[in-house]
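Look over this today:
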Amino acid sequence: MAFTIRQLQFFVAVAEQGTVSRAAQNLSISQSSVTEAIKELEGDLGVELFERHPRGLSITHKGHQFLRHATKILADVSDARRAFLDAPAATGGRLQLGVTSLVAGYVLSDLLARYRRANPGVEVSAIEDNGDYLEHLLVGGKLDIAVMVTSNLRDRMALQSEILEVSAYRLWLPLSHRLTTTEIIGIGDLAGEPLIMLTVDETEENTGKLLAAIGTRPNVAFRTRSVEAVRSLVATGAGVALLPDLVYRPWSLEGDRIEQRDVSGSLPVVQVGMVWRRGSGLPQAARDFIGLAQAQRTVRQRP
């Protein structure tokens, strides 16, 4: 039996949410429906997509490989629907995009690939920079749209935004770390732990505020602007990290495993969205980009 689009949607939801219960809640369906769909998908593929353990599920290496195929298939299905439901896309024009470092490789890449396929005649240019500078360019009319962290958007009077994804902070650990077997991890459990600090967008500021609750000065072992460096350092036991789910992957480039755990208490979330100048007459190329991003978000949320 061939796998279904519905099974792929459930699989992607579990992979993104981390547990069957959260995926079921996000999809507004029963947990048993999600569990059965995952079992049927694994049976069809002949591989285990998730490892089962008392704390829930963790995606396997094969599952991680299949995730890229699944998200691409769902995106292609969305493109096919839009080809018949939407008005013909503009055959030309220009789109000027901005993107912040944290989301460049995790949100924009797939979105931009889909946009280029749907609008081959549009000339696309993109710039990566910090949020403040992108806001400046948007207000000045130098950019049409920015895909960026919107949680800390400064000029909300001049700019309009729409959320594409909300990502919570969680704890990254090496496989052998003592806290991987702890049922409930509190922020106080991180006192004295060497910390790998990511210094892009507002992540360093948010992590600092979290650790201030411990009451002692954080033990920062390494600061870096590279998510891949964080992955490698955590996986090899150099420290732990508090980062949003958005950038989590279970393996480093060297193939070492990275565990992820919830931390009890009030942790911040990262909102990623599209931002454009309020009241501006957006070109058709920009309106098409917004429509495509909205459709992709709907596909990921649809049960």
